[in-house]
Amino acid sequence: MWFYLLSPLFRKVFKIKAYGSEVLESKEPLIIAPNHRSYIDPPLIASLSPEPLVFLAKKELFEGKLKNWLFRNMNSIPVDRSKADFNALNEAVGRLKEGCKVCIFPEGRRAPQRGFLKPKPGIGYLVAKTQVPVVPVYIHNSTEILSSDNKHFRIPKREVIVIFGKPIEFGYVEDSPRGYKKVANLVMEEIKELSKKVKEYL
Questions:
Q1: Which domains can be identified in the chain, with CATH numbers?
Q2: Which mean pLDDT values do the consecutive 10-residue runs of the chain (202 residues) have?
């Protein structure tokens, strides 16, 4: 129902325009790495994928039997953001090795409406353990649908632009905090470069 009915409706209602999303049609595992400014970003990315994505999400979203069941059935992995949650990261590593596509927000939490946060090393850990390519993604205007200061859905006045970059092949990555940080910083820089292309699509 999501992929054949709700997903197209979601994209139309919220004026979502994607560029380069054909990269998600790959049959190989991928690490999808978007910036993060809105509560709506996870379902927004999911609506653009032709197959279910695995998401890493803060553990608070899983509190309560109903929400735990819901988010688990949405292919989400709970992450304890108060520490380096290697249990969650290793679960994501396992899913990548099974051939899944995993979406992780490098910043780890929502950034200011028009800014970026320093990336967390988690994405570097996934790359070091799997050598799976990373697809940088820039999401523009998603705060017009749902923002931190307004918990109600809104129909955006402007289009929500999503730009997918080309997969980054890292090959060997030093399996250490230094190596993880290096990957995270590089991915974040690629996302920032994509943000500069938004004017081409407005």
A1: 13-200 (3.40.1130.10)
A2: 74 94 97 94 92 88 71 80 91 97 95 91 97 97 82 85 97 94 98 96 84
